[in-house]
Design brief:
alpha/beta; Helicase, Ruva Protein, domain 3; Rossmann fold; 7-stranded mixed β-sheet; two-stranded antiparallel sheet; 11 strands; about 35% helix; elongated
Length: about 290
Amino acid sequence: MNVERSVASCLARARSSVERSEAALLLGHVLGRSQAWLFAHADARVDAASEAAFADLAARRAGGEPLAYILGRRGFWTLDLEVGPDTLIPRPETELLVEQALARIDPALPARVADLGTGSGAIALAIAAERPLARVLATDRSPPALALARRNAASHGQDGRVEFRAGDWFVPLAGEVFDVVASNPPYVADGDPHLARGDLRFEPPGALASGHDGLDDIRRIISAAPAHLAAGGWLLLEHGHDQGPAVRALLSEAGFDGVATVADLEGRDRVSVGRAALQAAGRPRVG
């Protein structure tokens, strides 16, 4: 005979394999309740079907599957985004890339912005939410990722302002120029042991690794960027904590001015930027 358990007992049974805060998120997901509700109603009964569903989710988490994939959601910037195994999980450190892009987009002027390798659409949608006058184009070579990004755009009322195109990096943007180009490309070295650990085990390998030193895709983006930037336009790239010097060198070799690296909140190199020459081929800056 099935015996209904309480919220508290369900959470207690899961503690041996799942952290308390994560168990509460999973049980709240199953019950459609907030964590505050769970703790205020610790004696509430959980029916057998819900308990079984919760146990299944807890087992998946205990096996290492990312919480974001189990829940199908992840917060980023001010957005609640759908996520799935076809895209990287948006991470807090990528918000630095958004901050640096916004600092280079005048909110009082129209601008053209490109997000390369958009994945879930996190960067493109965050920029669009903060800069209503900007036209944002986002590219990705993965059709499933683009489908998910379009759903996120629709759920946040941005499907009319953010355009998504299929293709590798700048390929879908032939002949077009932008004021700001931002990208969080793959930057982990092939064979890096971190790829076999933690959440990275479950994320798409093609969105993580990029050659023997992790810089193959960054090289491609930097090489092609000058033809797609307006005079004085900016290229911004997220990268690994130890890749700042190499990315700055690549930007300088490609003729960028104002080359710099910005550290994240933990003091690690995270985003490198470069400005196209004021005489760059392309149109003048909008406005």
